[in-house]
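ok so I'm stuck.
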Amino acid sequence: MAEYPKTAEELAEMLACAAAQRKTIELGGNFTKCAGAGPVTPADVTVSTAQLNRVLAYEPRDLTLSVEAGITYSALSQVLRPHAQMIPLDPPFSADATIGGIIASNSSGPRRRLFGTARDLVIGMKFATLEGKLIQSGGMVVKNVAGLDMAKLMIGSWGTLAAITSVNFKLVPIPAVERTMLLGVDSPRAAMDLRDRLIRGVLQPSAVDFVGLRAAAELGYKKALLAVEFGGNRAVIERCQREMLQWAEPVDLTEGEAELFWFQIQNFTPSLLEKSTGATVVRISTTLSGMCEALQTLDVPVIARAASGVIYAYFSLASLAAKWMSSNPQWTSVIEYGPSEERRWLSLWPSPGSELELMKRAKEMFDPHNLLNRGRYYRHF
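replied:
not stuck anymore, here's the structure
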């Protein structure tokens, strides 16, 4: 049974108490990503941050915000919308995912092309250690460069180092006008050629996603798609439409259609995991010039952040995902989501590079007895 601390101090005390008794700890928010990274290892104590869900400070004029880790992304979006502001992470599981879980898993979505990931939007953080200490990193100032930014260690650590208790963000204004255009394409090469024209131009889209033929079929489309979102004032949008018409005949979505489309793209992973017990998601990182070659090796549904070099490939079985990864070592790939039992034996991150050794050193510093979220960091610790 999970424990639900209501304050950061109470959370820190819980961690210290468990660590003093050498008890293993499972840490989460709403636990929406149990199928992600390493498998959840049975623990002596389960702690949820879900009741740490307050807005601590919000300065709309300064475009800064501080919230507790347990607030959900959807609830936070509702707080920001009246001020026409947003945190453009667009993560999967967005209805129930907590901010702490999103940051700990470094989740992002289509608009990372323009706005970046959590590392670009987080300006400060507070976290609780197994020693029972509350550590503050950064602050509420966008340009805060003093000292070591320990918050960067927590982003993508899957809760294996410490418990995030609050996060400070720099916010982004919601554009006055947003427009989504879908371009049907016959091949990944055709899509990447269009992408190159887009990103080399003066007008910069906020999202450029390639939706492969099989993934597009899941969404009710008959062709593979290059989906492009622009934001700005009406004059900017009209210019975007004129330029796009020079290259292709895009389908211009209404506001409601665009909202539904991007919601489906954003939540393609949880939707597939819900439908299929064997579904396995591989995240592939490539150069922009190498994306086409990587896409051509994949005979499965794919969605790619086409202007960011990230491909999500959706395999029906974990064994098929593992086979593809072993046959294509030239690209950096990781099994991001998959069945728990299979993740116990799969090589989730075959070629982690030098960053793994740095994370191991951080783990030894924060959690030398490997008590916190054991096995969650792609089974490496």
